[in-house]
Request: fold
Amino acid sequence: MTTYDENILVALSNAMVDAVAKAGASVVTVDARRRIPASGIAYDKNLVLTAEHVVERDDDIRILLPDGSDVPAAVAGRDPGSDLALLRINTGGLIPAEPAAQEARIGQIALALGRPTPEGIQASLGVVSAIGGPVRTGHGGLLERYIRTDTIPYPGFSGGPLVDASGHLLGVNTSGLMRGGALTIPAPLAWQTAASLAQHGSVRRGFLGIRSQPVAIPAAQQKALGREQATGLLLVGVEDDSPAMAGGLMVGDILVGLAGQPVTDPDELLARLVGQIVGQPTLVEVLRGGQPARITVKIRERK
Amino acid sequence: MIDLTATLAKALEEVVQRVQRSLVVLHNGHQGVGAGIIWRSDGVIVTNQHVVAHGGARTALLDRREYPARLVAEDPEVDLAILKIDANRLPPSLVADAHSLRVGQLVLAVGHPWGQRNVVTAGLISGFGTAQTRGPRHSVEVIRSDVSLAPGNSGGPLVNAAGAVVGINTMIVGGDQGIAIPSHVVSAFVEEALRRNGLARPALEAYA
Reply:
């Protein structure tokens, strides 16, 4: 017989309270739009990661810290493609969120947190319902992976964290990325974007200068390639003065790999053209006349 | 190693049974049903004012015994009402102080959503706030939870993981957020109203 004080539900309840308290110390209010303020996550001592769509203005941005202090902030960078923005404060003193060691798993208990009002941290309970991606977003971006949960996206929860039962960050919640609902940007992706925003002020997206369509690769050519890969991208156009033209890519080539990774569809290509790769000489693997060929292309930044 | 989910399920069952013993069904024959909780073993029932606003509430206990209820006090501003039925040795609710609640705490709502009896929904404390009211108080403290509520949950308890009442479920606002009146607001209202009506608790609880 369990007692009133020692039943396992009480233990679970206490653990959830601790998770909210721990994670909530890194959650701030982001006041940068006309409607009710939204939420943000401390990424560094003086940097706040939030949803790009809630930062409607560049001036007069206020951040309300968990201790109640109200500080001005400036935009350090924006990436509308993944609906993430980074804000900088001069005072510092934020407690950075701790990403979970393991990525979100379906069925896992998850808490969505937000701090849209001075009344304190808010929370909603659910489970990780699905993990999907890649998916194209409404702003020409591409989200490699996303998490869906059955937590309730309360007003002002955009920019706030999804955390696990021990308060570690699983991702960033936003209802502005895809029409028809809230989703969560996985923490590794969000942190990667934040790093790029902190360094460059934007997410660098690469540009090859090709038009392509997916095609099946015949078995004999897969053999020549030395791996099982059912599809690649047939080049149907190469732009003048483009990195592809400069590197020697030709119409009729089938693009099968980039920087040592297979490329099987256009979304995969877009996902691989982000970040460090931009500006670097990069190995492009193609099938030309049925035979594999390796061509070096210097990837340019997309304007 | 213990079977964690089975242990959780068993604990949940025990807590729910304890709460259901002190839950009543309120109806007046034609409107939908509402919920109420047994506050005192001598038949003091607490519910929402809007549940009994149409009058003539009959009270059914878990064992289906029915009693006519007398309205002792009501306060539309905080949506609370006190009923009295002529019954004794009823199992009163455990009540916890809502001041000690924290965001993230597990809570259960028990009530009769859409008329379905003794339904349990689970969630957590989402946050705290105040709601503007029309009356001398001007505002009242509220508890927000993400527990799923429907008509018929009104007047029923929001309980903590030990099964003690932390609030009375009152209404549903935008975004599925459930609102409950905190137990300390309920206690203050009940104690004051009972004293005014000569029903203050006897110095010795005769049915303890």
